[in-house]
Automatic annotation (TrEMBL):
Region: Disordered, residue numbers: 1-33
Protein family according to the UniProt entry: Belongs to the amino acid/polyamine transporter 2 family.
Primary site of residence: membrane
Protein name: Transmembrane amino acid transporter protein-domain-containing protein
InterPro entries (UniProt xref): AA_transpt_TM
Amino acid sequence: MLKEEMKTQGEDIEPGEATAYPPSQHGEILPGKESNYDPVFGEGGENSPKYRSLGFLGTIVLMMKAQIGLGVLSIPYTFDSVGMIPGVLLICAVAGIATWTSYMVGVFKLRHPEVYGIDDAGRLMFGRIGREVLGAAFSLSMIFVSGSGILGMSIGLNAISSHGTCTAVFVVVCTVLGFLFASIRTLSRISWVAWAGLACILVAFLIVTISVGIQDRPSSAPQEGEWVPDYKLIGNSSFVQGATAVSSIIFACSATPAYFAIAAEMRDPRYFTKSVIIAQIGSTLMYITIGVVLYYYCGSYVASPALGSAGPLIKKIAYGISLPGLAATTTICIHLPSKYVFVRILRGSVHLSSDSLIHWATWLGCTFSVTLVAYLIASSIPFFDSLVSLIGALLGTFLAYQPSGCMWLYDNWSRRTDRDWKWTTMACWSGFIIAVGTFITIAGTYGSIVGIIDLLREDGGSKPWTCADNSI
């Protein structure tokens, strides 16, 4: 291992050989080294979009914003299903697995610089079928998340305006905003949206957390007589409730597939692992703090989304501050699948890195198409919790767990001469990740679908394409 770590830039490396500090990648921007060629984006000209311009801090904030977004809004509510202690343990376990799966994305990208997205990884491991399945799953996952982001923004606008107009109008407004911001062409230029969004959503949760701590009781609790928080240290949930709760937590930590695109636009992809660790520690601490404090003071009366837990006034303030954060999540999650389709269409063409009419028509066509599908999802599945858990189970787990285990096996299975205990341990761990991911995908999807069906059957519940207030 030490020998591998001492390798310097520029030295020859055997195919498939792992290094802790791999040589510089094509297109990597390093002092004293200029190169316009990239295995993904091709040869860039002077006026081409600077795809490989994402710095270390920008990478961290994009990762944290991809993590801390819609998922955190449902975490306090999941504690009511499983209990506070199991909830904290689940967050730690899921975050630990997410750290390893995200780390594998960086390792795989460095070993295979021609990989842009998870579909390219699928092509290497499973051929054309793997490419199409993982590519379609990634696109659907991001589109579903952007749809839930549009839904969350419409809830915020309803809360701020006291249902000032038809909810369907708010959904359209949020959709248009998402399209405009997502049409910015490079992640480095979008990073300022992530900075603003992350700061706003953290401030909003800080206000709600402090407010529920100093108030006598949450807004939805009985307002007369003595009241004591009815939080549960250990929950007594059904299988469906437990599966839905686990899926929601996985959704909060399921940004792993998006990290391929982030790594592809980094100036120096060797900083990827450090960025992942910092982003994962920060998001995990935030999840635990928000979940424990809000559930401790609110108990079963915690709202979902959690920003509505502290009463009408704080709800308006919190949603007003958090709207840029929800908009940032929507922007990033529209941009990433649009960029995936865009690169897939124009890869190998001069139009990928030019300002031609074909370039702009293709790019705007991709962002518009993705935004349109996200709008249809936001309007047709108006249940925030159920939508979040469905995404986490059906797509988040499938994309984050199974491919990561397969990536380690793909790169290391051919090591026939040094299969020591470390190799055996990692092979067993990779198989475990694949098995756990498969089980959660099936069980969580079942629980989420049952939950959506039950909500649709309830009288007075939210309905698709409705004008009713969805912030209540």
